Amino acid sequence: MIQWVMLKRAGPEQTALEIVTLDQLVPVDHLLRKIDGVIDFSFIHDLTAPLYCADNGRPPLDPTLMFKALFIGYLFGVRSERQLVREIEVNVAYRWFLRLKLTDKVFDASTLSQNRRRRYQDETIAQAIFDRIVEQAIGAGLVDGTVLYTDSTHLKANANKGKYDLAMVAKSRADYWGELDRAIDAERALHGQKALKEQERQPAVKETKVSRTDPEAGYMVREGKPKGFFYLDHRTVDGGFGIITDTFATPANVHDSIVYLDRLDRQVERFGFDVTAAGLDAGYATPGIAKGLEDRNIQGVVGYRNPTRPKPGKMRKGAFVHEPDLDGYRCP
């Protein structure tokens, strides 16, 4: 007869009392431990204090706890606030990060969502929190702001691409057209040439799809990208350690180049960056951005994009040879 001496059954007892601290239950190499050791979130309390009434109403949910909970949801991909609350209830690392004891009752999901949608609907609060964390990274020597890299990525909107209305809307355009025209006229004047005839650059109107569920999303149609309603997250990182220094969302049908120079100037003004070089994706390769970087004495490096094949019977602009003496182009 074989006796299985080494096998043991797990005991059914789950009510035993144990003396243990919450800190002992969180692995020493857990990501939230690392974040907690380098980011000080305490500033959120004073930053959000003006949004609360000091002598009226029920005791509010601690704003620091709330934003740290939202941070957990983003960091670990928990998109549902109800699911986030359930995860906090059972995850000791989340409780440790939020300074909740094992016996503390977790806040209700509706408290989280209503605060986010009502008290914190102004996006300037989120931007202010982001900026303060970037400043902490600067203080720690992780960001110097001399070399910045920018690219955009599409974020799917929570909207059915088959449910939309057609509407006539103005195309988005950059504000640098007038500046470009003046620069061209100045260059022509140096060569004794007349100024170009002034053109009206009114934004073109086009028919586009507008989501019935999320009208702020843009319908994206790009080569190699999925079609549907999306947003674009324009993100800039510092060249030293890859710390994100700016993030800005636009509808997906807004061209990458539209917001770039404004966001660059904001970082310079907000953090005092002395930017000497900027690396950009090919989507940012426009005359306006090239001139904007030159005016700011910033070396721009832009990704190469293969030119679109010309239509049958047509040739690319690069195929024509410029003849300076004739002030014209020679057809190949």
Can you describe this structure?
There is one protein chain. The protein is α+β, with helices and mostly antiparallel strands. The longest helix is centred in the middle third of the chain and has 17 residues. The protein is elongated. It folds into two domains: 100 residues, no CATH class; 154 residues, Nucleotidyltransferase, domain 5. Strands 1, 4, 5, 6, 7 and 8 form a six-stranded mixed β-sheet that branches. Strands 2-3 form a two-stranded antiparallel sheet. It is 33% helix and 18% strand. Helix 5 packs across helix 6 and helix 5 crosses helix 7. It comes from Aminobacter aminovorans. InterPro entries: IS1182_transpos, Transposase_InsH_N.
Structural class estimated from helices and strands: alpha+beta
Q: What proportion of the residues form beta strands (DSSP E)?
A: 15-25%
Which sequence of SSEs, written as H and E, runs from N to C? HHHHHHHHEEHEEEEHEHEEE
Low-confidence stretches: none
Topology, number of strands: 10
What is the CATH T-level topology of the largest domain? Answer: Nucleotidyltransferase, domain 5
What is the class of the largest domain in the CATH system? Alpha Beta
Main β-sheet, in a few words? 6 strands, mixed
Which oligomeric form is depicted? single chain
Task: Estimate the helix proportion, in percent.
Answer: 25-40%
- The whole-angstrom Rg is 28 Å
Shape: elongated
Average pLDDT for all residues: 84
Pfam family, one: DUF772
Protein name: ISBma2, transposase
